[in-house]
Amino acid sequence: MKLPNLSTRAPKGLDKEKTKAETQKLVAKIGELQNVLYASQKHSLLVVLQGLDASGKDGLVKTVFYGINPLGCTVKSFKAPTEVERNHDFLWRVHQATPEKGMIQIFNRSHYEDVLVPRVEKWIDDKTVKNRFTHINNFEKLLSDNGTIILKFYLHISKAEQKERLFERKTHPEKYWKHNDGDWETRKKWDAYMEAYEDIFKHCNTPEWTLVPADQNWYKEYIVAKKIVTTLEALKLSFPKPPKAAK
């Protein structure tokens, strides 16, 4: 699978307004299903969001999880590790942020950053990358065996759309706070990041990745919301029943 060959846009002919209306229904449904997840305390949900700069991870969280009860959901972003974190194995900081039963945890950038940036910047060699793939697979299996449902989304943005969004951050007063000169430097290594992601999808695909066309926010939000609803509904969870009255 080559990422440049995959579309970054919605299928032609898909009705935008109807899709947005459906997304609103799905967002409301996520709120309902989250209440049951929180009350039943049988499973947890880990949502992994990955994508290049300006692929829309922040906006997706804001829109798709709009109806969530904050008591049952947290968001964590994994950036450059601190000195303390570097003195432990690369998954040490991640394991501490995994969700307990009943909770939804969103990783806005995740443990996969540790097989992306260090690889592209050549801070680690190929052997280390392969070892980390193995550790990630074992880590995710451990979580799954303990009742955590893992949904992994890659937000697939085109190079042209990313350029437009990065430029907008630089020129729009209300978006300038997101501007980072480093994003433009990272963009120069586009092909290397594509290759690194392709390897991730090849070697760490259990649970399976959902590759989300991300050039149009309305379609991206629909795909993610629909996947979350379908996954939570499949658990067939219910509210705990009250204890039977003593005779």
Features:
single chain, 247 residues, alpha/beta, Rossmann fold, five-stranded parallel sheet, 10 helices, globular
Give the helices and strands, then pairings:
Blueprint: H1 16-40, E1 44-51, H2 57-64, E2 73-76, H3 83-86, H4 92-95, E3 104-108, H5 117-120, H6 126-145, E4 148-156, H7 159-171, H8 181-187, H9 190-203, E5 209-213, H10 217-234
Parallel strand pairs: 1-3, 1-4, 2-3, 4-5
Helix pairs in contact: 1-10, 2-10
Show unreliable segments: none
Count of DSSP strands = 5
Q: What is the domain tally?
A: 1
Q: What is Rg?
A: 19 Å
Biggest β-sheet: count, sense, barrel? 5 strands, parallel
| Amount of beta strand | 5-15%
Helix-strand category: alpha/beta
Supply the CATH architecture. Answer: 3-Layer(aba) Sandwich
CATH superfamily: P-loop containing nucleotide triphosphate hydrolases
Note the run of SSEs as H and E: HEHEHHEHHEHHHEH
Number of helices: 10
Strands side by side in the biggest sheet: 2-3-1-4-5
CATH class: Alpha Beta
What global shape is seen?
globular
Kindly identify the CATH topology.
Rossmann fold
Average pLDDT number: 95
